[in-house]
Amino acid sequence: MAIDPLKTVGQNTPRIDAYERVTGQATYTRDIKLPGMLYARVLRSNVPHAMIRRIDTSKAEALPGVRAVMTHETHKIPYGSGSISGGRQYSDAHKDITTRLRYTFNDHVRYVGEPVAAVAAVNRHVAEEALQLIEIDYEELPFVLDVEEAIEPGAPEIWSGGNIAHDSENRQQPIGGRTGDLEAGFAEADQIFEDRFTTQFVQDAQMEPRSALAHWEGDKLILHTPTQGVSNCRHDTARDLGLEDHQVQVICQYMGGGFGDKNGNYYFDLIAAAFARDLGVPVMVELSRKDDWLATHGRWHTVQDYRVGVKDDGTVTAIQLNGLSGMGPYLRRSGNVAGMDVYACENTEKSILPVHTNRVVSGNFRAPTYPQGYFGIESMMDEVAYKLGIDPVQFALKNMVRPTETKQFTNFTLDQCIEQGAELFDWANRWKPEPGSGEGPIKRGAGMAFMMFNARLGASSAILRVNAEGRYTVYVGVTDIGPGAKTTMSMLAAEELGVPLSDVDIVWGDSDRCPYSVGESGSRCTMMTGYAVVEAARDLKRQIAENGMPQGDSVLIASATPAPTTNGKLREGFGAHFVEVEVDTHLGDVRVTKYVTVHESGRILNPLPALDQIRGAVIQGIGQALTEDLRYDSRNGQPLTSGYYWGRHLTHLDVPQIENVFIETDDGLGPYGAKTVGESGIIIAPVAVANAVYNAIGHRMRDLPITRDKILEVVA
Amino acid sequence: MKDSHDSEVSRREFIGGTGAAIVAANTIPVKAQDRSGESNERAIEDVPLTRITLTVNGTEHRVAVEDRWTLTELLRDHLGLTGTRIGCNRGECGACTVLLDGEPAYSCSTLAVWAHGRSVQTVEGLEKSGRVSKLQQAFIDHNAPQCGFCTSGQLMSATALLQRNANPTVREIREALAGNLCRCSNYNAIVEAVQAATRTGGA
Ligand code: FES
Ligand code: FES
C-alpha cells in the first residue's frame, strides 16, 4: 500500500531539544538545585524476609547535619501503586479493598533492598553516614526465591493466604482463558509436543538513577521526578498522600530513559514529599545505582510449559500454556505472558499464575508481557518445525495469524514482513536445514521470529494555542523519555496546521500546565496523545478560518480529547527478525553477526528516531537473550549481580549493526496512520537469537540468558 | 594531603573568595526540631578540606574541596556544571566521563583532590564561541542521544579519540567508546555520528 507523502511528517527531523542534549544543558531531576534543599538517602533491608522487631535511629538522629529520620514507626504512607497497579489507567478502586497493601516502609520486609528507613541531611555524605548508624533488629523468616517452590504447600508465606498474587478483587486466579475447543484440537493432531522454557528477571536499568525532589507551597506539593507520565504520577501521588489531584504538581522536563516502569509514582516520591512537608524545605531523594537495581522494578521472570498439537502437514491444531510469573513480594503489574495470538490456531488455553517470591519486585519493562512469551512460544514452534522437517519460515507462513471473517485487521502485513525479511537476510543460503552441521569450532546458524503488537487507540488530551504573532503552542503531558515525543508532537501540529515546525513551541512534562496524557508507555503516546494534537489542530484551523488570526493580545485556543475506535477490528504493528550467530564451541561465546528486521508500524512520522527505537530495542533484546540476569544466592537470598557490570550489559563492542526496513502503510487511523514503534523491536529479539543458536549448534537453549556455561554444557 | 587541611581560612571565606558556588550546607535555613543547628554547622566544617587549583574548560578555579568529594561532585554540585552525569557512581557506565589533561576519565571514580594542578574538560567546554563542535553537530544530525543521559560521556570519549586519531575505523570507534554504556542501546547511531565527524566523514 503506497502512502501519500506529507510535508513535515515523514521528513527526517532532528529532535527539537537535541542541542540541549548534546551540550549538557538538558536539566534532569538531579540537576535541579533549590535554595536550602536537603538530601535524603534510603536504608534498605539486607535480609530477604523478616519482621522488624526494633529499629533504633537515635544515633543517626544525633549525627550533626541530620535533619530527620523516617521509618515505618514515624510514617505510615501507603504506596498504592505497589500493590494495585498504579495510575488512573489501572484499578483505582482496588486500593479500598486490597488486603495486601504496601506501605512506603513496612515492618514486615519481604526482599533485600526493601526500604526500611530514610534520612534527610544537609548533604548526601551525611545522609549516607547516618544510614550506617541505624540499628535494626530483624526477626528473620524463611524465604523463597523460586516460583515453583513458592506455591508448594508449606512454602514460606510472604503474605498470609499464600504466595499466589491477588487480582483486583483479592482472588488468586490464573490469568488467561480458553478459545475454541482444546480437546478437539489435540484429538485432531497427529503429534503432540511438550516442552518447558524459562526467562529471567531483567532490570529496566535506565541510565539515570532515580531521584525525586519535593517541595511544598502551602498545601500544594511540587514534585520533580523522572516519570513516563506526569498525569498518572500526579494521580498516584495524590492518592497515596490523601490529597486531591490539584494539590500535586508533577514536573519532568528531561529523564534519562524509562523503559516501562515509570508511568506512575514511586515510593521515593512519597519519601521526598513527606520529608519536605515535615521539614518545610525542599528535599531531594537520591537512589544509588544499587538502590535503583534492587529496589525498583524489572521484567518478571517466567516458567512456561507448552503443549502443542500438530498435524503431519505442519498445521498447528492446539496450543496449551501453563505458566508462572515471578512478581517479587508486591504486585506492581499484571504478570501476564503474551504471544499465543500470533498463531492462527483457534484451540488454545492459557493459564498463568503470578507468584510472590522474596526477590526484587517485578514490573513493566518494554512490551511487558511479550519477550518472555514470544521466547517461549516461538522456541516451541521452532522446535516443532524442525521435528517435522519444515523450514521455520514456511512453518511461520503456514501457521501465523491471518485475517478471517471473525478476526479483521485494520490492515495486515505480517506475511510481507516475513517474506521481505527472508529475502533481505538471504535466509535460503544462511539457514542450515541440518542444525549444528557447521564445521567447528566456530559454528554459524540462522534463526527467525515474527510478531504483532497491539497499536490500540484510546483517549488522551492536547491543547493548542495561537497568538497574534502567529506562534503556535502545543500543550501535551509527555515527558520525552528518549523516543523524541516532543518533536513528534510538534511535527504533528505543524503538519496539520500547515505551518513550518519552527513556528511551533511546546509545553510538556508538567501536570499543571499540560492536559492529561496517557504517558509514554505501551507505545501509545504517538497514537493517542499525537492524535489529540491532530484533532486540536483541526479545531484551531476551523477557528482561524472562521475568525481570522487573533489580533493584539487575543489568542485562539483549541483542545481535543478524542477517543477513536477501530470498529471492532484489530489494529496491530507487525514485524519479523532474522539473525545470524556464530557460536564458539570452545569458549561458549555467542556473537550476533547479522541482524535484519522488517517492521510495519503504519506511517513513520520521524524516520531516524523511529529506526533507532527499533535498533535500540533489538539490542536490549539481544542482551536479554545472551547476558542480562539478576542472580541470587539460594543459601541466603542475597542478590549477586546488581549493576551494569555484574548484570553484564552490552557495550559498543558487543553489538552488531542492525539492518531495519519499515513497510509503511496508512490505515486511516491514528495520527496519519502511525502505529506503535517503541516496544516493537524487543519482542522477538531474544527468541530470534535463541533460534539461531539452535541452528548453529543443534541444541535447543530453553533457559534465558544463553550464557557460556549453558552452551558449553551441551556442546562439550 | 594532611598539610593542606586548612584551619586558618574558613571554608566559607575561601570558597567565597574564589567565586566558586556556595556549598548547600552553608545556606541551609536551620529547621531541625530538636537539635542545635549551630553544632551541625560546626561538625560539618570539621570535614577535612583540601585546597586545590584546577582548570575547568579553560578557567582556573581555586577551591577548597572535601577530601571525600569525587570530581563529579565538585563539577556538578559546586561548580554548577551539571552536564556531567552520574549513571552508577562506581565506574561501570561512563556517563561521568570527562577529559583529564585530554584523556577520558571516569569523574565518579576520580577524587576531586586528584585533579589538583590538572586540566579538566567537560561537555560544557565543547561548544566554542556559541558554536557546537563538529562532533556535537554530528550527534544532533544522527540522533545519537535518545534519552541523552549517556551522551555527555560518549561525546567526551569520542572527542578524545578524534583528537588523537582524526580518521578512526568503526572498530577503533567502538573500542574507544567501549567504556560508555548506553541503556537506550543507541550504539549504532552513536557510532554513525562519530564516523560522520571524522575527517573523511566516515566515507
Ligand atoms: S557514573 Fe562514573 S562510571 Fe558510571
Ligand atoms: S541515550 Fe539513553 S542511555 Fe544512551
Walk me through the structure.
The complex is a heterodimer of chains A (716) and B (203). With 716 residues, chain A is an alpha+beta fold. Chain A folds into 3 domains: 18-26 and 458-560, Aldehyde oxidase/xanthine dehydrogenase, molybdopterin binding domain (Aldehyde Oxidoreductase, domain 4, 2-Layer Sandwich), CATH 3.30.365; 32-141 and 211-286, Aldehyde oxidase/xanthine dehydrogenase, a/b hammerhead (Aldehyde Oxidoreductase, domain 3, Alpha-Beta Complex); 301-456 and 568-715, Aldehyde oxidase/xanthine dehydrogenase, molybdopterin binding domain (Aldehyde Oxidoreductase, domain 4), CATH 3.30.365. In chain A, 27% of the residues lie in helices and 24% in strands. In chain A, the strands form 7 sheets. In chain A, strands 3-5-1-13-10-11-12 form a 7-stranded mixed beta sheet, with helices on both faces. A 5-stranded mixed beta sheet of chain A has the order 7-17-16-15-8, sandwiched between helices. In chain A, strands 19-24-25-28 form a 4-stranded mixed beta sheet, sandwiched between helices. In chain A, a hairpin with a 4-residue loop joins strand 20 and strand 21. In chain A, helix 11 packs parallel to helix 19, helix 15 (485-497) runs parallel beside helix 16 (525-547) and helix 17 packs across helix 19. The two termini of chain A are 50 Å apart. Mean pLDDT of chain A is 94; it is low at 82-90. Chain B is of the alpha+beta class. Chain B has 3 domains: 1-46; 48-122, Beta-grasp domain (Ubiquitin-like (UB roll), Roll), CATH 3.10.20.30; 127-203, [2Fe-2S]-binding domain (DNA polymerase, domain 1). Chain B has 8 helices and 5 strands; from the N terminus they run H-H-H-E-E-H-E-E-E-H-H-H-H. A 5-stranded mixed beta sheet of chain B has the order 2-1-5-3-4. In chain B, a hairpin with a 2-residue loop joins strand 1 (49-56) and strand 2. In chain B, helix 5 (134-141) packs across helix 8 (187-196). The N and C termini of chain B lie far apart (51 Å). Chains A and B meet through helix 1, strand 3, helix 17 and helix 18 of A and helix 2, helix 3, helix 5, helix 6 and helix 7 of B. The structure holds FE2/S2 (inorganic) cluster (2 copies). One FE2/S2 (inorganic) cluster sits between chains B (145-150, 182-184, 186) and A (207, 257, 482).
